[in-house]
Amino acid sequence: MSNKKSWTAVDDYIVASLFEPDPVLDSVLAANHDQGLPAIDVSPAQGKLLSLLARMQGAKKILEIGTLGGYSTIWMARGLPSDGRIVTLELDPHHASVARSNFDRAGVSDRVELRVGPALQSLAALGAENAGPFDLIFIDADKPNNPNYLSWAMRLSRPGTVIVCDNVIRDGDVLDEDGRDANVEGARAAFSFIGGDKRLDGTAIQTVGAKGYDGFAIAIVD
C-alpha cells in the first residue's frame, strides 16, 4: 500500500471510529465541489481538531483568515458556546457566496461574520474597530502573506490566544531554504516569525492523511 493510500485509509478509519455520521458536513463538501471550489479544505480529522482546540481554549471569539467554502469555519463555529462568534475573511466573492449558503445549511450563520475582500484590508479594519482580542486565530490563506497575517494576529490577540497556521510543512519542502516556491517561502517565514517573536511559544505538528504530507504550526501568546 502506497504512503498516500495508507494515510487516506487511516484517516477514514479515524473518522469511522471516532465521528458520528455527519450528512451536513458531507453536503458542505459536495456543495464546494459542485460550485467549482478547489478541494483544499482541511480534512475531517483536522476540522475536528480545530473544533476541539476551540473548546479546550474556551474560545468565545475566533478569527479565521481564509474561508474558502466555510468547511473549517463550520467546524470551529461548532466549538463555540451559544454566545460565541467567529469572524472569517475571504477574498473571492464566489467562495464567500458558497460559504454563506453552507453556513445556513449547517445552522451556524448566527455565529459567523464573513468579510469579503483582501485579508490585509479586512484585518486593518478589524484593528481600527478594536475588534480583538480573539481567543483562537486560524491562518489558512495565501502562504506568502503568512508573516503579515501573523503580525496582525499578534495585534488582535491577548496573552493566552492560540494561533494556528496551516500548511507549513509542504510535503517536506519547508527544508528547502534555497527554493523559489512562494508557498514554501511563506511556510519558512511562518517558522521564522514564530521562532523570532519572544511573545510566542510555539511548535509544529507534521500531519499525514487524505490531504497528503503537511502540518500545522501552533503557538500561544505569552
Automatic annotation (TrEMBL):
Highest taxon listed in the record's lineage: Bacteria
Record bears the keyword S-adenosyl-L-methionine: yes
Keywords, alphabetical: Methyltransferase, S-adenosyl-L-methionine, Transferase
GO annotation terms (biological process): methylation
Tagged with keyword tRNA processing: no
InterPro entries recorded: Cation-dep_OMT, SAM-dependent_MTases_sf, SAM_O-MeTrfase
Gene3D superfamilies in the record: Vaccinia Virus protein VP39
SUPFAM superfamilies, per database record: S-adenosyl-L-methionine-dependent methyltransferases
Molecular function (Gene Ontology), one example: O-methyltransferase activity
CDD domains: AdoMet_MTases
Listed name of the protein: O-methyltransferase family 3
